[in-house]
């Protein structure tokens, strides 16, 4: 699956994933665990930057990880988002809403089947 790779999308990928993640949260984001999140993060960043193709599941993982790090002061960037990425909250919300609309159509049926559940 491909999505437009706007400059803003590339900037958000620099902050992919919670800074202070737990095993359970990593599993909820579609990874097999915390180690899998760390192992995949660099590849997901490169793919979001337009250097590699991404599966629908990887787009969901990247989107949810970005949503969490954007919003949460507890485990993410939160109020420091603008310093982390150079993007304002308003620009980020516009970007995330566009991705959510696109991904919602493209990834229907994945939640609960490899995403957001414990691995089989």
Itemize the secondary structure elements and their pairings:
Elements: H1 7-13, H2 23-28, H3 34-48, H4 56-71, H5 81-85, H6 89-106
Helix pairs in contact: 4-6
Detailed description of the structure:
The N terminus is likely disordered. α4 packs antiparallel against α6. The chain is built from six helices and no strands. The chain is mainly α and 120 residues long.
Summarize the structure.
This protein has 120 residues and is mainly alpha-helical. It has 6 helices and no strands. It has helices spanning 7-13, 23-28, 34-48, 56-71, 81-85, 89-106.
The average pLDDT value, as a whole number, equals 79
Q: What is the percent of helical residues?
A: 55-70%
- Please indicate the count of domains: 1
The description of the largest β-sheet is: none
The general outline is: globular
Fraction of residues in β-strands: under 5%
Structural class: mainly alpha
Distance between the termini: 24 Å
Salient structural properties:
120 residues; mainly alpha; 0% strand; globular; disordered N terminus
């Amino acid at each position: 699956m491909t999505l437009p790779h706007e400059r803003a999308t590339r900037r958000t990928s620099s902050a992919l994933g919670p800074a202070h993640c737990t095993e359970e949260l990593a599993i909820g984001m579609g990874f097999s665990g915390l180690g899998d999140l760390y192992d995949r993060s660099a590849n997901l960043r490169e793919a979001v930057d337009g250097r590699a193709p991404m599966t629908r599941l990887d787009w969901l993982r990247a989107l949810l990880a970005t949503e969490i790090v954007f919003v949460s002061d507890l485990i993410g960037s939160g109020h420091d988002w603008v310093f982390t990425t150079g993007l304002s909250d308003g620009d980020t919300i516009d970007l995330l809403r566009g991705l959510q609309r696109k991904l919602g159509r493209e990834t229907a049926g994945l939640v609960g089947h490899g995403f957001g559940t414990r691995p089989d």
